Amino acid sequence: MACTVVPNAIFKNGNSIPMIGLGTWNSPPGQVAQAVKDAIDVGYRHIDCAHVYQNEHEVGEGIAAKIAEGVVKREDLFVTSKLWNTFHRPDLVEGACKTTLTNLKLDYLDLYLIHWPVGYQEGSELFPMGPDGKTFIFSDADYVDTWTEMEKLVDAGLVRNIGLSNFNAKQVQRVLDIARIAPVTNQIECHPYLHQSKITSFCTANGIIVTAYSPLGSPARPWVKADDPVLMDDAAVGELAKKYGKTTAQILIRYQIQLGHVVIPKSVTKERIASNFDVFSFQLDDADMKVLAGLERNGRICPESSAFGHPHHPSINMVVTATLVTLNNGQKMPVLGLGTYNLLGQNCIDAVKTAIDAGYRHIDTASLYQNESEVGQAVREKIEDGTIKREDIFITTKLWNTSHEASQVREAFDTSLAKLGLEYVDLYLMHSPVGATVDANGATVLTEVDYVVTWNAMEKLLDTGRVRSLGVSNFNSEQLRRVIENGTIKPVTNQVECHVRLNQKKLIKYCNEREVVVTAYSPLVRPGTTFGAEEPTAPKHAFEDERVLAIGERYGKTPAQVLLRYLIEIGTVPIPKSGNPERIRQNLDIFDFRLTPEEVRSLDSLNTGQRLAQQGQCVELVKKAIDIGYRHIDTAFLYENEVEIGQAVRDKIGEGVIRREDIFVTTKLWNTFHDPQHVEEAFRRSYDMLDLGYIDLFLMHSPMGLRFAGYEYADMQPKDADGNMLFDETDYVETWKAMEKLVASGKVRSIGLSNFNSEQIERILATATVKPVVNQVEVNPGYDQRKLIAYCKERGIVVTAYGPMGRPHRTTYGNHNALGDPKVVEIGQKYGKTGGQVILRYLIDIGTIPIPYSTNDERMRQNIDVCDFKLTEEEIEYLASFHSARTIPFLPLKSHKYYPFNIEF
869: left (phi > 0), else alpha (psi -120 to 50), else beta? Predict the structure, then answer.
């Protein structure tokens, strides 16, 4: 063997530790003693063991045999053991150490570590399991109190050095802050698939040696799955092994040593023990070290997942990063990113910075989103404060449809890059295959520009060095085929809507066969939902599906985490959007578990093939409505479309079709924002998303407050573990007072109510300094609200009618539907109108302002064409005869103290 003298690492206290040792975790019983003897014969002088490995007696036998043979003396050896989690309580530490010494047949340990920062219930069980059979029972012991007892072991001569294992940086710092004797090492999982650069840098800066366990990727770990990546089979490692004439294990061990880490590979095979030791006769060059560093994929092998939930679990406050996927051009992209659609202004800046701090290294934006400047600012600030380097972050932006002409592509890209303020973008996508242009009148119209021509122009951007990869978005298989066949550069990704309700498995398969990664937008099926989903026949939101909940319970994960993990399992890169710091962090915490094939198949069954409304659909719908003649647009935070509404209105103002003062825009304060302290911020978000200078009418969506959970769409339906709505008892009168202050700001012209009964309105009027101008409620022939209308009219309050057609295509709660009634049709024929037009006229004639919803061009035109006739008293009374019941009774809120529908009106 070329080298029999092992170099030592020097602890901060001056003591030394051999750079390579024999690990004994997971070694088969009955073989450990011989493995220790073989290791000592080869030249190992560092043996690593632990009480929880349950083989210290065998380790002791091997050591004793070699000392008896005269091969080594006790002082030649460096023996490490660890305090197990059930002995964290201070009064148990010394006894645990003495038990280990007895098992090892030794008088002292060279190094004793706290095995994990988490304490388990004290007792004879090494793994005290709770009733769920999945989570350990925890101890209240704090590891800083345990550390004080560890120091006493040094004082007593039982231990020469003390250290830590599996501690994150904040936990190490807590120990340093109280330590009389500083830890000499932190033993952590470390290999090319998990570099742990932040904690290793922290330890180095504080004079703490890193000891790397599982340096070979622990291929024989008990919980390994058949499709888990195998580090020792990695092609890059294999190439280096060929280059140096070494085994892959020797390459991986040498890598850790050159990083300055003590390394403890495990084996019980004599030949492999010897081979693992033969790593001092060669040295990896700098280029090879970079190759191994480039294999990072956050591939944690030992997450101690059954201790998730413990306040001292090392994953708490630990930066988590997404694993990487290699694109067809060799570039690497994190397999989870932050979507930024609908994130605007400071909210966008804060969200991106929070994401980067949490560990995100993939941020997705677009010219269409109007937030490239904010995304760029956030990234630059995190570069400047040293959190990341530019090469650490993967930035995607997109070419919008109005720049599809070949001559426009370069300018559009330059504009996006300038807004981002970065030297380059990692990925530039064609946002859709559909080209458009702005005509002389400022109107956006579709063009026939071939997306292949656009793609060919995009390919030239690669020559500038300012974009690393190109891809497409919203392309079907045929469109993708044409791009591949007619381009010189293959797209690296196709970004499409993809979630558990639309799992795109056929498209994913098609893309995989062509080495094109699928990026999944809207991965959480838009977690904000409307009350319309209460219909018994409607499928539950995926967050509430029993299959999703059961999987989440098994792994201790949220429904969102399960759905994101599902998308990764089926081969996509999800880009969930959130501005909520906690949810941003949760969405990233999906790399410590995997779904079984059975669980994936279970979630496959949720696929309905139903798409969400496309981002441009609402924009075009509103623009058509304005062109037809509508000048009143009703939206709400709940509807998740304020950005699109604002864009459509601004476009029509820009075209000269309308002026701002010609259009009346209503939006609403959602129930989770009733606490006065949230009203202003909730309004600001709606105001910023609409971006129209002011809002004409701002309504309180209902008198029923829900518990505040954040300002995200996903926070709108807060529920307990049993699926019950979490109520807030804020008095809506206090909410109204906070809304009154908004009027003084000049940003809203009028304020009003929605879904209020007469008694609740009376309470508002009794204290109001600004009178509500509107009460928006369900009104249709099946529930005509005549008494409430009369009540509001007497007080100068206009009634706005939602659901004017009575939800004719849904199962209702006894509502007598008028649409399609023969007599109603007959009345329509008399006036040359449809049944729907007769109903809308009826609602106008009884004193309401109806706000019908439609996506059909012809029906939109019909709905506004109701001002050239009036119904007779007899016809009005006939339509009044349909009065029966509500279609939307808000049943999940029926027990709320401010439920408005318990009285007649």
Answer: beta
- The 3-state DSSP class for residue 139 equals coil
Helices within 671-749 (DSSP H only):
676-690, 732-744
Q: What tokens appear for 461 in the block?
A: 């951007």
44 with 22: CB under 8 angstroms?
Answer: yes
User: What is the rounded CA–CA span in Å between residue 352 and residue 344?
Assistant: 11
Model pLDDT for residues 874-896, shown as the tens digit of each residue: 999 999 999 988 887 888 899 99
Write out the two tokens for 7. 């170099």
Classify domain 324-605 at the CATH class level: alpha beta
- pLDDT: which is higher, 295 or 372: 372
Question: For 187-199, what is each residue's pLDDT tens digit?
Answer: 999 999 998 888 9
CA angle 562–564–565, rounded 5-degree value: 65
Query: Partners of 798 in the beta sheet?
Result: 774
Judge if 324-605 and 617-772 fold alike in CATH terms.
yes
Based on the residue annotation, tell me whether 53 is a catalytic residue of this protein. Answer: yes
Question: Does residue 240 contact residue 284 with C-beta atoms inside 8 Å?
Answer: yes
Element (H, E) at 445: strand 444-446
Cα–Cα distances in angstroms (integers) from residue 23 to residues 77, 439, 498, in the given order = 14, 72, 44
Consecutive H or E run containing 483: helix 477-486
Long-range contacts of 32-37 (CB under 8 A, 24+ apart): 32/58, 32/59, 32/62, 32/268, 33/58, 33/59, 33/61, 33/62, 33/65, 34/62, 34/268, 35/62, 35/267, 35/268, 35/270, 35/273, 36/61, 36/62, 36/63, 36/66, 37/62, 37/65, 37/66
| CATH number, span 617-772 | 3.20.20.100
DSSP annotation string for 782-793: TB--HHHHHHHH
- Domain coordinates of the chain in residue numbers? 9-307, 324-605, 617-772
Token pair for residue 39? 């290791």
Query: What is the architecture, at CATH level 2, of domain 9-307?
Result: Alpha-Beta Barrel (3.20)
> With the C-alpha atoms ordered 507, 512, 513, 515, is the resulting torsion angle positive or negative?
positive
d(CA 685, CA 688): 5
Residue 396 pairs in a beta bridge with 364, 427
Q: Within 10 Å of residue 612's Cβ, how many Cβ atoms? A: 15
φ/ψ bin of 898: left (φ > 0), alpha (ψ from -120 to 50), beta (otherwise):
alpha
Task: Using CB atoms within 10 Å of the CB of residue 176, give its burial: 0 to 12 exposed, 13 to 18 middle, 19+ buried.
Answer: middle
The winner for highest mean pLDDT among 304-313, 666-675, 705-714 is: 666-675
**Would you say the C-alpha torsion 373, 378, 383, 388 has a positive or negative sign?**
negative
Q: Which of 53, 213, 711, 898 is catalytic?
A: 53
Q: What percentage of residues in the chain have a pLDDT greater than 90?
A: 74
